[in-house]
């Protein structure tokens, strides 16, 4: 892209656009946690959304190698080598994914095909299914109540509004605001201090020069931090295997959220202090893990403790939020839900 007219714009629009897309996805997921969009009868919507999220992460990983920068090269080498932790078939599996003994042109060609053709087609299918499932049961609302319980004489929900023009105008405003922010970053600070594009990735891939710290882009760093938090070599199979399992479990547990949440109400407006406190701790922990995933684990970038120690604390809090959810959501003292949407 450096060798074509306007290539800089295409490159920055692509890289910044990817980060903005993940910002929107994370905000969308957070809103779901706030208002109970994962609860019945929207379990299928949540599951399809989580499949979309995982597929987006795969798309980001496959595309990350394509610039063939030094950080891209070594990042791909590290992530693919994680498959080597699988007992018995690990080394052969990692070699099969790479298509070679090391990351090479064979890896680049197959990742290009995945990034440009296969994964976008899968994303398109999942987006379609996500929207179909949404239209089947209807959207949620900040009160978390079922508007179909109150209908007019024609059978339409009293608190329902048409998708057009209400939602389209609202969403167009959101798109305009996000596009303004995106283009401002593209034109003025496309690297955003190394968060959207790392300095090491402007250097061509070099098999003889390893970057000081090999880290993925920010939207994958919370899970990378969980991976590095497991340092106990006394575990059966070693720390690497359990780190990979912890990272995988951190993603898989999100799929079970609709059945872990046992609260009688959906929206945070009517939940008690336990869920509000747990959700606050979870968000702070997720952001902290994301930050620590970009830092050297042996350094001290937060207060007093090494980064790896904070990551281990974050790992415990992250999983406690989900595994203890059936208990604290059932024990929490909630407020009664209104019969109609409040409009607040």
The CATH architecture of the largest domain comes to Up-down Bundle
General shape: globular
The CATH class of the largest domain is Mainly Alpha
CATH superfamily of the largest domain: Cytochrome Bc1 Complex, Chain C
Structural class: mainly alpha
**Spatial separation of the terminal alpha carbons:** 48 Å
Portion in helices: 55-70%
Rg from alpha-carbon coordinates: 22 Å
Provide mean pLDDT, rounded: 93
Q: How would you sum up the major sheet?
A: none
Tell me the count of domains. 2
Strand percentage? under 5%
Q: List the total number of helices.
A: 12
Number of strands: 0
H/E element sequence: HHHHHHHHHHHH
What fold name goes in the CATH topology slot of the largest domain? Cytochrome Bc1 Complex, Chain C
Low-confidence stretches: none
Could you walk me through the main structural features you see in this protein, from its secondary elements to its overall organization?
With 344 residues, this protein is an all-alpha fold. The protein folds into 2 domains: 1-207, Cytochrome Bc1 Complex, Chain C; 215-335, no CATH class. It is 59% helix and 0% strand. It has 12 helices and no strands. It has helices spanning 7-35, 43-65, 70-81, 90-98, 105-137, 163-188, 221-229, 239-252, 257-260, 273-292, 307-323, 325-331.
Task: Quickly list its features.
344 residues, mainly alpha, Cytochrome Bc1 Complex, Chain C, 12 helices
List the helices and strands and how they pair.
Blueprint: H1 7-35, H2 43-65, H3 70-81, H4 90-98, H5 105-137, H6 163-188, H7 221-229, H8 239-252, H9 257-260, H10 273-292, H11 307-323, H12 325-331
Helix pairs in contact: 1-6, 2-5, 7-8, 7-10, 7-11, 10-11
């Amino acid at each position: 892209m450096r060798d074509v007219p306007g290539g800089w714009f295409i490159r920055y629009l692509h890289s910044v656009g990817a980060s903005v897309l993940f910002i929107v996805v994370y905000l969308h997921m957070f809103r779901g946690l706030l208002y109970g969009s994962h609860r019945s009868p929207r379990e299928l919507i949540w599951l399809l959304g989580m499949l979309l999220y995982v597929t987006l992460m795969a798309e980001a990983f496959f595309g990350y190698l394509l610039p063939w920068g030094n950080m891209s090269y070594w990042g791909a080498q590290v992530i693919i080598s994680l498959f080597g932790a699988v007992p018995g078939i690990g080394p052969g599996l990692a070699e099969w994914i790479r298509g070679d003994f090391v990351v090479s042109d064979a890896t680049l060609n197959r990742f290009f095909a995945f990034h440009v053709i296969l994964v976008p087609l899968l994303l398109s299918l999942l987006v379609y299914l996500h929207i179909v499932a949404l239209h089947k049961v209807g959207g949620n609302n900040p009160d978390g109540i079922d508007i179909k319980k109150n209908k007019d004489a024609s059978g339409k929900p009293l608190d329902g509004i048409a998708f057009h023009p209400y939602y389209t105008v609202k969403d167009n405003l959101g798109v305009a605001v996000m596009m303004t922010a995106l283009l401002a970053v593209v034109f003025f600070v496309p690297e955003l201090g190394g968060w959207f594009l790392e300095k090491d990735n402007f250097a061509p891939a070099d098999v003889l020069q390893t970057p000081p710290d090999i880290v993925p882009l920010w939207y994958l760093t919370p899970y990378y931090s969980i991976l590095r938090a497991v340092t106990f070599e006394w575990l059966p199979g070693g720390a690497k295997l359990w780190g990979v399992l912890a990272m995988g479990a951190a993603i898989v547990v999100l799929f079970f959220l609709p059945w872990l949440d046992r609260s009688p109400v959906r929206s945070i407006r009517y939940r008690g202090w336990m869920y509000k406190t747990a959700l606050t701790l979870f968000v702070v922990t997720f952001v902290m893990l994301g930050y620590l995933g970009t830092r050297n684990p042996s350094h001290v970038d937060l207060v007093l403790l090494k980064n790896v120690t904070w990551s281990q604390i974050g790992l415990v809090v992250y999983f406690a939020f989900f595994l203890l959810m059936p208990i604290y959501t059932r024990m929490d003292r909630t407020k009664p839900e209104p019969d109609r949407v409040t409009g607040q």
